[in-house]
Amino acid sequence: MQTPFRLDGLKALVTGGASGIGESTARVLTAAGAAVTIVDIDRARAESVSGELPGSSVLIFDITGESAVNAAFAGIAGLDILVNNAGVGLVGGIEETEQADFQRLLRVNVEGMYLVTKAALPLLLASKGTIVNIGSVAGLIGVKRRFAYCATKGAVVALSRQLAVDYAGRVRVNCIAPGTVATPFVDAYIAKNFADDKEKAWADLHARQPIGRCGYPLEIAHMVLYLCSREAEFVTGSVMTIDGGWTAA
Fold it and tell me: How confident is the model at residue 189 (pLDDT cuts 50, 70, 90)?
């Protein structure tokens, strides 16, 4: 039997690949044999990560800019795996959410994913490749004071399912919906919103998962690996939770 979950000879691209879930995903896919392209807007961090990953490369562009996205993909010769991971968050209910902030989340979390996916599709169709979109439990349930974030992650879930239907048999498309994951993204959220009591804020985040803790980026990355592997060839249109039991409670 062949070793499971190998990606030898495959080419992968990970948006937001310089930190958090994206960085862990780039590392795990590389370890499985893939040649990974890290997409980010933080050049220094992206190049630092790439320097530790044999066969990897870096592309620096803003996923919300159509011309920048298209120009970047024009230089890519082949692609087997697309991981749409880049995203931003926002704390606040509808009355607290300014229109500009709502539009910013839509641009990054939804429109950016649309632009990257559309640009990557010809390459993925040629390779009969796979797409993994990083969503959130916030796209499946209502999370208090996350109006804009829930709206955009709900869109990610819906567009993942729709693409899976349109391209069934040609490109596999799946979505991962993590609970709270301990990443620099969450660190920044706590620093901004709970600077006076970071310890309590972390305790509250851990507690909302029935398992009693936040997830780790590596745990999400290994689910990405499974969905990209030959072992998952029958999996498409799925929204897979990895949330410590949050959505089951």
Answer: confident
Q: How far apart are CA 102 and CA 144, in angstroms?
A: 16
> 3-class SS at 163?
helix
| Residue 149 annotated in active site | yes
Count CB atoms within 10 A of the CB of residue 41.
Answer: 14
Starting at the edge strand found earlier in the chain, the sheet holding 172-178 runs 57-60, 35-40, 11-15, 81-84, 130-134, 172-178, 239-242
**H or E element in which residue 179 lies:** none
Q: Nearest CA to 85 among 162, 4, 23?
A: 23
Q: For residue range 49-97, what is the model confidence (pLDDT) as tens digits? A: 999 999 999 999 999 999 999 999 999 999 999 999 999 999 999 999 9
pTM (whole model) above 0.85? yes
Q: Which amino acid is at 176?
A: I
Which one is catalytic: 149, 189, 216, 226?
Answer: 149
Listed residue (85, 21, 71) closest to 49, CA to CA: 21
